[in-house]
């Protein structure tokens, strides 16, 4: 059972893949779900509000945040690419979001960080959230910035944040790497729900993964949140092995946790 502790919840990035997956699920967490993206994605349904806002526009972001009780921030650039769009959406955009939260008294944020913050650790390693960031891309750098910025806003302004280092959230794992990084949509919702409802969140960094037998990440420091994954990539293992080739151990995408992101770019 999902306990409603917030009247109005904001979901940014509502037009994206994860935003679409969470749209119906998050209605169980609130009375009104405010949905936002920079592009049109349809009309508001029952118990919904739709607000269009570009994250780089401070005034638009302020209007987007006004009146909400908590924020699930999925908005921004979600892949590696040229620095310009990443700068506007993921760096300036996350600053605008936290400034708006400060001004409007929003005290809890669930921030979609990424496993690419630590993508240059090797797949032969198991890391905790205490290890230093080792971004594998400009995208990963932008998410590391978001984690640091959210910590500043917690220390200075007491805005609690859960930084979710989301692995690979799809209906099922697409390749052998995702057997370690997979996060089901239902477990993603369970994780967000735990972060929204735990009595004391503080500033928490949590790896977003299901209960996979193979994993590179240790979530021991996140037990206070109460997230208990119920799905696992293990049921897909045989099918994934059958349709994929054995890994080339000389390939950097196989050596490092970030996969193909460690080889992306540079961009002209």
What key attributes describe this structure?
268 residues, single chain, alpha/beta, Rossmann fold
What does this structure look like?
This protein has helices at residues 17-23, 58-65, 83-104, 138-157, 178-181, 185-197, 237-243, 252-255; strands at 6-12, 30-37, 48-52, 70-73, 108-114, 160-166, 203-208. α2 (58-65) crosses α3 (83-104). It has a 7-stranded parallel sheet with strand order 3-2-1-4-5-6-7, sandwiched between helices. With 268 residues, it is of the alpha/beta class. The longest helix has 22 residues, at 83-104. The chain is globular. α3 links the parallel β4 and β5. It has a single domain (6-263), classed as Rossmann fold.
Describe the secondary-structure layout.
Layout: E1 6-12, H1 17-23, E2 30-37, E3 48-52, H2 58-65, E4 70-73, H3 83-104, E5 108-114, H4 138-157, E6 160-166, H5 178-181, H6 185-197, E7 203-208, H7 237-243, H8 252-255
Parallel strand pairs: 1-2, 1-4, 2-3, 4-5, 5-6, 6-7
Helix pairs in contact: 2-3, 3-4
- Counting DSSP H or I runs of 4 or more residues, the number of helices is 8
Q: Tell me the count of domains.
A: 1
**Helix share, percent:** 25-40%
Instruction: Decide which structural class fits the backbone.
Output: alpha/beta
Strand order of the largest sheet: 3-2-1-4-5-6-7
Q: Return Rg in Å.
A: 18 Å
How is this structure best summarized?
The chain has helices spanning 17-23, 58-65, 83-104, 138-157, 178-181, 185-197, 237-243, 252-255; strands at 6-12, 30-37, 48-52, 70-73, 108-114, 160-166, 203-208. The chain has 268 residues and is of the alpha/beta class. β1, α1 (17-23) and β2 (30-37) form a beta-alpha-beta unit.
């Amino acid at each position: 059972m999902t306990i409603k502790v917030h009247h109005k919840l904001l979901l940014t990035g509502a037009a994206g893949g994860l935003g679409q997956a969470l749209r119906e699920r998050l209605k169980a967490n609130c009375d009104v779900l405010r949905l936002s993206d920079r592009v049109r994605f349809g009309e508001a349904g029952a118990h919904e509000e739709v607000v269009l806002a570009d994250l780089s526009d401070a005034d638009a972001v302020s209007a987007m945040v006004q009146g909400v009780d908590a924020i699930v921030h999925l908005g921004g650039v979600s892949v590696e690419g040229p620095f310009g769009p990443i700068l506007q959406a993921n760096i300036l955009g996350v600053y605008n979001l936290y400034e708006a939260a400060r001004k409007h008294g929003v005290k809890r944020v669930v921030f979609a960080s990424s496993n690419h913050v630590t993508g240059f650790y090797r797949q032969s390693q198991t890391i905790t959230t205490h290890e230093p960031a080792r971004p594998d891309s400009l995208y990963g750098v932008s998410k590391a910035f978001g984690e640091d910025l959210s910590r500043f806003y917690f220390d200075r302004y007491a805005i609690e944040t859960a930084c979710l280092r989301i692995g690979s959230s799809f209906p099922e794992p697409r390749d052998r790497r995702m057997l370690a990084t997979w996060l089901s949509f239902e477990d993603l919702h369970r994780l967000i729900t735990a972060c929204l409802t735990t009595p004391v969140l503080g500033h928490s960094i949590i790896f977003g993964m299901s209960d996979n037998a193979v994993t590179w990440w240790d979530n021991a420091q996140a037990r206070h949140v109460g997230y208990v994954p119920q799905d696992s990539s293990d049921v897909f293992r045989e099918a994934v092995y059958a349709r994929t080739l054995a890994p080339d151990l000389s390939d950097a995408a196989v050596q490092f946790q970030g996969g193909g992101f460690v080889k992306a770019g540079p961009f002209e």
